[in-house]
Amino acid sequence: MTDLTRRLPASCWSVLDGELALEGVKVSEVAAAVGTPFYLYSTQRVRENYRGLAEALAPLGVSVHYAMKACANVAVVSILAAEGAGADIVSGGELTRALAGGIPAARVVFSGVGKTDAEIAQALKAGIHQINAESYEELWRIDRIAGELGLVADVALRVNPDVDADTHAKITTGKRDNKFGVDADRLGRLDNELKAMGNIRLVGLAVHIGSQILATKPFAEAYRRMAGLVRGLRERGHTIERLDLGGGFGIPYQNELAPTPSEIAATIRETVGDLGCALAVEPGRSIVADAGVLVTRVEFVKDGGEIRFAVVDAGMNDLMRPAMYDSHHDIVPVKLPESDIEYLAYDVVGPICESSDTFAKRRALPPLSAGDLVVLATAGAYGATMAGTYNARALVPEVLVDAGRFAVVRRRVSLEEQLGWEAMPAWVTR
Ligand code: LLP
Fold first, then answer.
1. Cα–Cα distance measured from residue 11 to residue 214, given in angstroms and rounded to the nearest whole number
2. Which of 21, 36, 124, 197 sits a CA distance of 20 to 30 A from 105?
3. How far is the centre of ligand 1, averaged over its atoms, from the C-alpha of 4 (Å)?
4. Which listed CATH number (2.40.50.100, 3.20.20.10, 3.10.350.10, 3.60.15.10) goes with 111-283?
5. Omega before 37 cis (within 30°)?
6. Residue nearest to atom 20 of ligand 1 (CA)
């Protein structure tokens, strides 16, 4: 393995006959069976990532609620369910997926700023562990719906700690001007308002300051702030028995240094370890990002004069992260080059009619030709879940590998199928 393959975890990737293979399955073999583009996931790597974190956190009694939004494929979720993971959901749809994947309702927490009546009712009826309320307005809504159902809802209040996570602005959630959580300075109202709510049990607090956070300092700052709030609320007579610390643990996409599970555990221990709260985290990216790649085929190498474009058959609709966050994904040819070959600079672009449909600019790569397969690395998180059908494209499939075998776990949704979702009004004459 070389620098080209630095972001393909060596525990599950290998080179077979000069070609990339995941858990002993050649990428080219899957491409021949499934067509391109497609997501390819490693069962083993999902497990390794989960176990690495869960084992580091076990001595602190921290439970792990996997953030479904990172990769919500039911087969992937079921790997985590078998490991004993809980789920962090942000919609009724994710609840349906978590349950379908075998995660018990009693291990599900529900976050999100805009939960509808129907979603809250669905969650309460299912008997989930906890709803993380993001506003006083939402507390009232949960109280009303729980009352209608004749239940008492276990609720944690998500607090906005006003801490800068030092990450991309579009995935920062813990600053005062973000829409998330209740301002830490506005918890004074809680005492009176809770008294007036008969169907809510305030069980704890929750916090989540953003995603792809690479330093432990913002976590430490936020967790310490939460510890202060827990103590303050307890002094005012509230029984705060749970603390949900959110997710956001960053990972390397290029050469970044990311916090290790033991560093995360140490941060938790030092800041909130002595509160006597049942602790939880909600990681998404760090569990699945490096367990998945997007496999795509080069359609053309276009000589654009100054710039050489490699036009691939995946588009921003399949992997939105580069267009949305200027994210970096390593690109690796499936047939690995001779070690002494000279690299060329490519702009790797998709077929979508927007300039933002660009996966890499001036990327040094071994020479590419039409028909070559390449993988976009570290695409297991927020890849397939954010994919769409823009430009009337088929929905990208997902393939799961497990110790030498593979299965399509979401098939390509063709245009014929998608047309079946639409209807022609009777007044349209053709
Ligand atoms: N908990 C809550 C309440 C969240 O909002 C999120 C992510 C997580 C947990 C999981 O965070 P993670 O451990 O995955 O960082 N689409 C973006 C990331 C958006 C994250 C949104 N919230 C991306 O592709 O980078």
1. 23
2. 197
3. 27
4. 3.20.20.10
5. yes
6. 211
